[in-house]
Amino acid sequence: MRPSVSLVRSVQRVTRRSYSSEAVPERKVAVLGAAGGIGQPLSLLMKLNPLVSHLSLYDIAGTPGVAADVSHINTRSEVKGYAGEDQLAQALEGADVVIIPAGVPRKPGMTRDDLFNINAGIVKGLTAAIAKYCPNALINMISNPVNSTVPIAAEVLKKAGKYDDKRLFGVTTLDVVRAKTFYAGKANVNVAEVNVPVVGGHAGITILPLFSQATPTANLPHDVIKALTKRTQDGGTEVVEAKAGKGSATLSMAYAGALFADACLKGLNGVPDVVECSFVQSSVTELPFFASKVRLGRNGVEEVLGLGNLSDFEKEGLESLKPELKASIEKGIKFANQN
Ligand code: NAI
Questions:
Q1: d(CA 104, CA 87)
Q2: Which residues line the pocket of ligand 1, CB cutoff 6 A?
Q3: Ranges for the Lactate/malate dehydrogenase N-terminal domain (predicted)?
Q4: Across-strand partners of 55?
Q5: Quick one: 317 and 188 in the same domain?
């Protein structure tokens, strides 16, 4: 006897469902600072990511609204909002990836280091909670100054006996996104095909785009490379000034943050050859933390890749960024151990 069409359809539905839940593992992603300028669009983009099964949105206030709004989108993940410190434990428990855009943004005239004291304290508190409630999570640090907040997080985790250098990342993806966009504009190539590694740190001259390694190659003249380098380094300031007192990059940052978190999730899920630039513990230079290409895997960092061949201009840039980056790293370490 032939089975009815409706039975066949419902069996197909169940088969599809069980296949898809087996094929894509459950992954909880927590966004800390989810009600902010970056946090809201980042939460939206993470809701669109089919690799996420549970999306946990935490902030000191405002998250129930953001969570209710985002939760109506008909994609895979279940969304929960948590507001206030007494809900932080629940927000974090079981998280595979924790993205941190919590803190205050830069205003015109402020440098990233001006933000230091406020954001350093916020990052310290949130990292201590991660050490307690989800010590195995991959941490994606967006809060600035990244050159200092990553070393702060490392110190806090070390003190709690939970530090794993493979699981802590400073998100520098926005520098890569900008370098790709600006390069494509000048080289007149398809932006979707462009690759540009960006190394060093994540503030001013510590951001070192390696246009000599950019693909597709375009043989741009030196003055254009110099201008592209400067524009990439000053990309944050360009947005801060254009927003004229209404914050810093939020939409492009949310895109970059979502891209990096997606790469982390793919790595965790065993997708091969996932490579992104990130500010991590490193032995690529004499500095303890440095941004370069990183291969992501099931445990976070699988391999920190070297710098490759640098042009003379990039070699000079590398030497001149080291003292500033070193000072920012030391400032973070000192803060974590003093306060
Ligand atoms: P925002 O002020 O719009 O949002 C920050 C959010 O963090 C607010 O909702 C606030 O309530 C929340 N927050 C404050 N203390 C918190 C705590 N203890 N726990 C949880 N949430 C807390 O700022 P915006 O524009 O979203 O920027 C956030 C951070 O990202 C800033 O530090 C900014 O400098 C940084 N940033 C980083 C970039 C990067 O490339 N890595 C690029 C652009 C900004």
A1: 21
A2: 32-33, 35-39, 59-60, 101-106, 115, 119, 122, 125-126, 142-144, 146, 171, 174, 202, 247-250, 253
A3: 28-170
A4: 29, 79
A5: yes
Q: What integer pLDDT is reported at residue 107 of this predicted model?
A: 72
Q: Tell me: do 46 and 136 sit in the same domain.
A: yes
Residue 29 contacts residue 56 (beta carbons within 8 Å):
yes
Q: Do 108 and 241 form a contact (C-beta atoms < 8 A)?
A: yes
Residues 142 and 180 in one domain: no
Spatial CB neighbours of 275, under 8 Å, sequence gap ≥ 6: 293, 294, 295, 296, 305
Q: Which of 234, 253, 277, 279 to mutate to test the pocket of ligand 1 (most atoms within 8 A of CB)?
A: 253
- One domain for residues 259 and 128: no
Give the CATH number, domain containing residue 290: 3.90.110.10
What is the rounded CA–CA span in Å between residue 165 and residue 233?
26
In the predicted structure, residue 104 carries a pLDDT above the cut 90: no
* Residue 289 vs residues 4, 148, 322: alpha-carbon distances, Å: 63, 10, 11
Which ligand 1 atom is the nearest neighbour of the CA of 125?
Answer: 18
Annotation says 202 is catalytic: yes
For 303-324, the pLDDT digits (tens) are 999 999 999 999 999 999 999 9
Residue 204 pLDDT class (50, 70, 90 cuts): very high
**Which residue, among 204, 202, 176, has the nearest Cα to 191 in the 3D structure?**
176
pLDDT (tens digit, 9 = 90+) per residue, 248-287?
999 999 999 999 999 999 999 999 999 999 999 999 999 9
Report in angstroms the alpha-carbon separations of 39 from 24, 47, 100.
25, 12, 8
- List, as one string, the DSSP characters of 217-269: -----HHHHHHHHHHHHTHHHHHHHHHTTS-S--HHHHHHHHHHHHHHHHHHT
Angle between the N-to-C axes of helices 251-268 and 173-187, in degrees from 0 to 180, rounded to the nearest 10: 110
> Which range marks the domain in which residue 67 is found?
25-171
* Structure token digits, residue 56: 């946990």
